[in-house]
Amino acid sequence: MREITMTNKSSMLAVVLGALLSGCASDAQVQTKLDAPTNAEVCCSDFSQYPYAQLNDNEDLKFDIDLGSPVGTFTTGNSHFAAFKFSERSGEMVVKLSSLMIDDSVFAPEAMLLDENFKPVQTLKFEDFKVQASDAFTRTSYIERLRIDASKTPYIVIYTPADELGNKVKVDHPAKVRAKEFGEVMPMVTDPVYTNQLGGRLELEIKTLKLRPYRAKPAVAPVAAVAAPAAMAATATAVVPKKADTQIRVQQETKDFYLSAIQNAVKSGDIPKALGLLDEAKALNVEGAQEAFVRAVNAK
69 vs 16, which has greater pLDDT? Predict the structure, then answer.
């Protein structure tokens, strides 16, 4: 009888201790807290400075956001992020963004679309994402699809809101999802719980529906040809005064010498010598040389 009593007491103690331990474990799970990156870790002060990866017309890209990813400041707080630039050929397109739930962890995504001047145009909130159960080909994930015009919003930045860090999401076990889908008996399984983390594995799928129209720039040659005479005239106008400013100033003695020598050569009948002196005088910018030659010839 004593043995039975002792056994019952031991069993009760084990139950109480188990309850206490499970309660502590439950409390520890609820109190999970993650801090957002600090301001000292922020890489850039403006969206135009973010490192953007170039995308193709169509993409099926798997990538990680982790502690090594750059940190930016958003309206929801600081976050590690990934930034992409859509193809310049893409116009209307469908974008599918998924965040995979792996090993009890997941990245709670938000996405911001920017215009060509890096100004926010549209924000895809975390609340817009839906939970998609896993199947034979994909994992359970947050997922959202949207249709955009890449010519108006050529950039996308993916991050997580700071107030979602550490929060937990409980999703239906895949077996339950299948049972509901096919109307079968619910299996006795435990629904998985995932914690929103600083990073995670994501997928970005892009399908271009319409290419952006190409518009050739007008030819430049005709404009240049029309503008050429005006440009030449302006150049000539600008050069002439400059040339006048740089003329050599001839001393009075030099001027008197050439004028006298030209006149004497003409008087003596040595016209070739007079012409030679005239050329030299012109080269030296001697004023009145031509007039002196003409007067001497007329006076002869």
Answer: 69
